[in-house]
Amino acid sequence: MRATRTQEMRPYVIVYLDPFSSPRNIKLVIENVGRTPAWGLSFDCDQPLGAGIPGWDLRERSSLFSSGLDFLAPGQKMELFFGPLVAASEESVVRKWQITLTYAHQCGEEPHRETQTLDLDAFAGIMVG
């Protein structure tokens, strides 16, 4: 029972691609869908992060990837430009990334470390560019 309550009360940070909220661009969204704040967030990605712009890499352009984020409140989300929708449909564009998130719970427990996959192919046939 206590373990279940602990799981319910922890922060839970997700990272996902949103090609639907903008008619021309894809957004990278970082959101805390948990019930408590996430502290000391850090992000690591397996390859250049961005869709379709030569030389564009969010890891170099956003301080989130170089410095991390001190705090993300429950329900809070951050949206970053990921790339143009038209370019994302090109065959030569990288289509899949692994992002590892590390963040702490306010109780001082061991940090949560999770790897999530961003996959443009999940939107194949439904993205309108």
Low-confidence residue ranges: none
CATH topology: Immunoglobulin-like
In CATH terms, what is the architecture?
Answer: Sandwich
Number of domains: 1
Strand content: 35-45%
Count of strand segments: 7
Distance between the amino and carboxyl termini: 48 Å
What does the average pLDDT come to? 84
Across the major sheet, the strand order is 4-3-6-7
The CATH class turns out to be Mainly Beta
Oligomer designation: single chain
Q: Could you spell the SSE succession in H and E letters?
A: HEEEHHEEHEE
State the helical fraction.
Answer: 10-25%
- Could you say which structural class the secondary elements and strand pairing correspond to? alpha+beta
